[in-house]
Structure formats: structure tokens, C-alpha cells
């Protein structure tokens, strides 16, 4: 991909920076071929997942959750051209913030997570690595593992992913951050308590498996 710079390489897709796509900086997400799959099956899977992710990003934005603008979707090439969101990943700024700033930030993250779930969207990888702090707002990125669902179990798994990220990466502030997150989450999702209770069950199952 001439003139582009690889910025992230994942198991399913690579992210490329194009500094001048029709005059704007963009990120191009491309799902590469998997040689272990039959070519026709691989093409169908990559096409389907590309369309699905683009749809989730669009639905999330319609629900009031900031996400990157999508400029172009090319299903046959398994690529999504989207806005380059300027800012920093929340993962990288938590320790630099004051207590009040951290609480305000995670309350906002909780509010947007609640809007996401209220719209029937499960992110699938809800962590501070997939949220960018940009111009005073939080922008949710990478919906590659997401799906449309209102199942309490799947919401609980989403929440557990966030909690586990806090305990492993932001352990000094875990409870403070998650309390602020829950406050925001409850403000925008009517079934928040059911999802939070299920999160506890999911976490306990995980601890049981680890002991085994």
C-alpha cells in the first residue's frame, strides 16, 4: 500500500495511516487474507466482517456515541477508510490526570457505554485501549469484535472486560474509576444494574476457571 504507514498490526486486520486521502488524514483498516481458509470462504468472511464493523460504527454514532467518521467502505477489498481521531488512548493518560479529572473522564466513558448497550450494541473489546480522549470527549474505536445484542450476558462480558483492564493496567485507581464508570452507565441505561450484576457473575466464573 504505497505511500501509507503501518500503525498497528492485528490478528485480524492492519491499520494504515494515509496522510493525504482526498486531502485529509485517514486510517485505513484492512482485513488481510488468511491462507488457512479456502479462498472463497475467506473472501466472504472478510467481506461480511468489514460490512458488519462499518455498520456498528455508524449505529453507535447514531446512538450518540462518538466514533470515527467513515469515509469509504470497500467490502470486496475488506477495507474501511475512516477519520484519524487526534488524541490519546485513555490507557495512556489515566496516571497523568487528577482525581477529579479521572472521575469525570470515566463517568463520561460509562455514559457512552450505556448508550451503546441501550442501542443494542455490544463492543466486544471494551477497554481503555479502544477509547480515545480527543478534544475533551471520548471516542470509541475498534468495533471488530462487536455485535448487535441486548443480551444481559453479553453486556456483562463487555463490562467485565473494562473492569479487568482497570485491575491490570490501572490498578492504583481501579475502584475509583469503576465507581465513576458505573455512575455514568446507570445514567444512560435503564437495565444497568442487571448488566452490572451479570458482570459479577462473569468475573466469578473467570476466577473459578483460573483456580481450576
CA-based shape: globular
The name CATH uses for the topology of the largest domain is Transferase(Phosphotransferase), domain 1
Mean pLDDT: 95
- The CATH C-level name of the largest domain is Mainly Alpha
Beta strand %: 15-25%
Main beta-sheet strand count, sense and barrel state: 5 strands, antiparallel
Total of domains: 2
Look at the structure and name the CATH superfamily of the largest domain. Transferase(Phosphotransferase) domain 1
| N to C succession of SSEs | EEEHEEEHHEEEEHHH
Category from helices, strands and their pairing: alpha+beta
End-to-end Cα distance: 46 Å
Q: Order of strands side by side in the largest beta sheet?
A: 1-2-3-5-4
Multimeric status of the protein: single chain
- Radius of gyration, whole Å: 18 Å
| Helical residue percent band | 40-55%
The overall strand count is 10
Architecture (CATH level 2) name of the largest domain: Orthogonal Bundle
Spans of at least 5 consecutive residues whose pLDDT stays below 50 are: none
Continuous helix count: 6
